Amino acid sequence: MGFFDKIKQGLAKTRAAFSNTLEEVFSNADAIDEDFYEELEETLILADLGMDTVTKLMEELRRRVVNRGLTTTEHVKFNLKLILKDMLKVGDPALNISTKPSVILVIGVNGVGKTTTIGKIAKQLVDQGKSVTLVAGDTFRAAAADQLEIWAERSGASIVRQHEGADPASVVFDGIQSAKAKGTDVIIIDTAGRLHNKTNLMNELNKISRIVNRELPEAAKEVLLVLDGTTGQNGLIQAKTFKEIAGVTSVAITKLDGTAKGGIVIAVSDALKVPVKFVGVGEKAEDLMPFVADDFVDALIEDKK
Ligand SMILES: Nc1nc2c(ncn2[C@@H]2O[C@H](COP(=O)(O)OP(=O)(O)OP(=O)(O)O)[C@@H](O)[C@H]2O)c(=O)[nH]1
Ligand SMILES: [Mg+2]
Question: Is the shortest distance between the CB of 262 and ligand 1 below 6 Å?
Answer without folding.
Answer: no
